Each structure stands twice: as structure tokens, then as C-alpha cells.
Backbone:
């Protein structure tokens, strides 16, 4: 009897050691992935999948191995590998991630239309809703997208960045569906979070949220309200803010002044915006606004 107990203790100890070794090796492989050493990461995760102490470890290893393949422009092989994951939610999550990274949004929306994302584990379900919501929105399934984004907000928990992104998307979809009142409520709720977390205002999602709200106010010809809200973005003359969002903020100021009939002020903001290198489509749009204010001539 004593020998049997000792044997069990030895087996348990060996199992715990194996799990500890696996956990350490898994973190090392994740570090390779984070450092964009995708070929090495893929090989490391493939080995871990073969030696994983349990099904969860195997599924996680195969998921990372597939994503590492995807990052090496081997999409088809990555999808094939992801389909070998026996855990249904992890297989679906991995495929959705690969499709998102390869901008196959319509395919994602169609393939996972009936997926029960809510039944996924808590650490990935909200991410699944976020990805499918984005895909549905691009596929013009606005109501489906709205439902997914709202689910993401509800499930994101401590992942504040993903929650803020989902809130911005909820507001944007409400606007697309013609409910500007609801959109403004959500935008203001989102901006209120930034007041609690001001350190996040330097990230791209804050000006995107702000400009979404300002755009609605401009569309409603509430120019004073739009200008007051836009002022929260800060001084766009600072060099560090002379980027695409600085461009869009200056354009918004120009639109406000143009709506108020202040031609000189509008032209000043538009021309300041044109001093920023950004997407050609944005530049062409503002050049047309300048031409219209100058009397229909060619853009300057």
C-alpha cells in the first residue's frame, strides 16, 4: 500500500513538473511571437502542441502556431492548421483572427453568422464579438454588427481598450442606422470614460470618438456645440499632433467655420490641414472645399 502511495506521489510530482516546464516554454514562445519572430514562434508552438499536458494547452499552442503561420503570409496553411484544433471555440476564434488579419471580413461574417460566441470562454468571447461585429459592419449587416458590439461592451470586463473601441463602434453604427440621438449618448458616455482615464487621450481611439460626435453636431448644424466639444482635442499646432487626426480635427474646424459663414476662418483651417501629409483621399476632399470657398476655381 505504501509503495502504491509513493508511486502516485511520484506521478503527481512528475505531472506538476511537466506542467511547469510547459508553462515556462509557452511563455517563451509567446515572447518570440510578440517580438515578431514568427518562424521561430511557429516551430516552438508546434512542439508544445505535441507535448502539451492537457487539451487546453494543446489548443492554445495550435492557435498560436496557426497565427504565427498567418503572420508569415501562409494564410491557407494557417486556416488548415486552425481547423485541427479540437476545442470548438478556440478553433473558431483562431480562424476569425486569421480572417480579420487578412481582411477577409465578408467571408468571416458569412462563415460565423450562426456561431454561438457567447458560449466561448470569458477570455475570448468578447474578442470574438468584436471581430464579428467589425466584419458584419463592413458587410453592411448593421443590426448584426450592433448586437455584436453591444455584447463586446458587456463582456469586455477589465479590457478597457477593447471596450472603448466597441463603444465607439456602437455609436458609429447607431449613426449609420439614423439614430443620432442614441449615437450621441454613446459617444458622450465613451468620452466620459476618457475623463476618468486621461492618459488614454493620446491614443488614436480618443480623437476618433471625438470626431464622430463632432460630425453629428456639424450635420445637425449645431456649430457652437461642435466647436465646444472639438476644443477638448487640444492644440493641433503642436508638431506631435500634426498627423492624420490632427488633419481631421483641422478639417472639422474648417467645416464649422464654413457652416457659420466664416469664410476666412474656414480657409485658414483647411489650408493648415493641407500642410499635413496624410491620405490622398482626405487631401483631395479638403482641396475641393477650398476650391468651393474660393469661388469654384481649381484647388490650390
Residues:
Amino acid at each position: 500500500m505504501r509503495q502504491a502511495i509513493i508511486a502516485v506521489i511520484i506521478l503527481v510530482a512528475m505531472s506538476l513538473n511537466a506542467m511547469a516546464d510547459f508553462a515556462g516554454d509557452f511563455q517563451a514562445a509567446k515572447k518570440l511571437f510578440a517580438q515578431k519572430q514568427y518562424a521561430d514562434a511557429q516551430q516552438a508552438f508546434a512542439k508544445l502542441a505535441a507535448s502539451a499536458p492537457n487539451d487546453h494547452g494543446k489548443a492554445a499552442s495550435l492557435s498560436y502556431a496557426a497565427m504565427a503561420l498567418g503572420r508569415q503570409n501562409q494564410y491557407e496553411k494557417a486556416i488548415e492548421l486552425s481547423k485541427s484544433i479540437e476545442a470548438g471555440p478556440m478553433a473558431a476564434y483562431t480562424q476569425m483572427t486569421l480572417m480579420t488579419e487578412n481582411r477577409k471580413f465578408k467571408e468571416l461574417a458569412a462563415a460565423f453568422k450562426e456561431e454561438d460566441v457567447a458560449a466561448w470562454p470569458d477570455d475570448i468571447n468578447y474578442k470574438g464579438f468584436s471581430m464579428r461585429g467589425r466584419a458584419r459592419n463592413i458587410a453592411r449587416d448593421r443590426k448584426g454588427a450592433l448586437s455584436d458590439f453591444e455584447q463586446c461592451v458587456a463582456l469586455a470586463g477589465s479590457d478597457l481598450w477593447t471596450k472603448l473601441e466597441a463603444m465607439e463602434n456602437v455609436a458609429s453604427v447607431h449613426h449609420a442606422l439614423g439614430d443620432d440621438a442614441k449615437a450621441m449618448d454613446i459617444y458622450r458616455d465613451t468620452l466620459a470614460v476618457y475623463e476618468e482615464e486621461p492618459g488614454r487621450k493620446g491614443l488614436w481611439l480618443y480623437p476618433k470618438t471625438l470626431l464622430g460626435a463632432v460630425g453629428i453636431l456639424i450635420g445637425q448644424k449645431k456649430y457652437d456645440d461642435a466647436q465646444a466639444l472639438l476644443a477638448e482635442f487640444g492644440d493641433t499646432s503642436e508638431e506631435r499632433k500634426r498627423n492624420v487626426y490632427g488633419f481631421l480635427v483641422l478639417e472639422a474646424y474648417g467645416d464649422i467655420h464654413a457652416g457659420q459663414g466664416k469664410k476666412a476662418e474656414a480657409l485658414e483651417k483647411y489650408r493648415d490641414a493641407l500642410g499635413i501629409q496624410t491620405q490622398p483621399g482626405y487631401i483631395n476632399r479638403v482641396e475641393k472645399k477650398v476650391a468651393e470657398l474660393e469661388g469654384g476655381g481649381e484647388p490650390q
Q: What stands out?
A: The mean pLDDT is 89.
